[in-house]
Amino acid sequence: MSYKILLFDVDDTLLDFAANETDSLTKLFQQHGYTFTDELFQVYNAVNKQLWADYENGKIGLDVVLNSRFSDTMLRLGKVVDGTEWENQYRELLGNGSQLMEGALELCQSLSATHRLFVVTNGITQTQIKRLKQSGLYDFFEDIFDSQSIGFQKPSTKFFDYVMNHITDFNKQEALIIGDSLNTDIKGGILSGIDTCWINHSRHNSTDIRSTYTITTLGEIYDLLASVK
Asked: Mean of the pLDDT values across residues 185-214?
């Protein structure tokens, strides 16, 4: 049975989050009189990753992640800042970033003529919608499913249960999840019984998580879909 429903992750799948993040962080810290050095990025990255991991494991709420990451980062440097204020400024900068992954626009435009396309993201609702619109991708998708609106995040089965219950005529055998994260996209698909396609950006899989398919570029999706009948 061929795939008719394609569930796309956003960051580092369709949109280049790494490029957007670096540009937005650089501008944010400059606004507050700091040079965003590699060392400062390492501190921020460590704080941010731990907060998101705690959120994905259900230990803290999303508001704690967003309103603490900058205040916690600066506190490690001996500075006290308003984390909520910094987050709001960062969110605005991030929302203006719509750098595309190579081939993403052409892929979505082409596949939207033959498949039903949906977004499944752990990102923030308004930020992701704004970025998708600015990138030109938004109109190719039937619906946008995000963890902030749903109240659960990938890889939770509750997230994907919501998605499946809100897509008309959904059939697991006809659906494919496409994303770059083993721990959220691929694990979520496995837990929910949906086939997965991992976009491996030159990373070694040291986990026991195994995707149905593995590709290295978005362009490989054309041949993948053509080969599944």
From this structure: 94
